[in-house]
Amino acid sequence: MERRKTMPEIIVERLKEAIINGELKGGQQLKQDEIAKSFNASMIPVREALRILEVQGLVKFYPNKGAIVSELSVEEVEEIFDIRIMLEKGALVYAIDNLDNKDIEYAEYILRKMDDLEDEEHLSELNLEFHNVLYNASKKEILLGLISDMHIKVERYMRIYLLNMGFHQASQYEHYEILEACKNKDKDLATRLLEQHMESAKQSLVTFLRS
């Protein structure tokens, strides 16, 4: 049977989605008493949830202000994507030789589902799932954990990139190219395409945020 979620997990899930979809804006104060009341919870799980969101980069704590939703930041985008490029290229190098036909077919299935999708939440989820199918074959659990942490930090930026900025079609084309290189076991081409894919997303987001 599926484990029931704890109250901190429930609060994290709902606040995270509200931050990522823009319902809670960058710079907005998160009043712990109001959150506790809305979830019919005590202050303890609220504090625990906010600390988890802080680790994920979605919330910051300030003296005399408490918890504040993190602002979208050019510097953060650049740093996260630079770290992602290093980690994910490494994971792909480890993974390519282990990718089998089942992995490739499932990755293709995900991309076909993404082709005509216009729901930013599910598009973001499928985008992550596509990349994870490729990287999971690396069987490097620590590396995969670090990549997962970076994906959490970048998710709200990726929703802006994939739909709000109209780059979904270009991103899909790049995904198919990466997958073809993986299918052919061409590590050099696959990692080069992956780096170009993420550099393109980074530069587009930086331009958007600066404007």
UniProtKB/TrEMBL annotation:
| CDD domains, per the entry | WHTH_GntR
Q: Which InterPro entries match?
A: GntR_C (IPR011711), Tscrpt_reg_HTH_GntR (IPR000524)
For this UniProt record, give its keywords in alphabetical order, as a comma-separated list. DNA-binding, Transcription, Transcription regulation
Indicate whether Transcription appears among the record's keywords.
yes
| Coiled-coil residues | none
Which residue range or ranges hold the HTH gntR-type domain?
5-72
Q: Name the source's superkingdom.
A: Bacteria
Output this protein's name.
Answer: GntR family transcriptional regulator
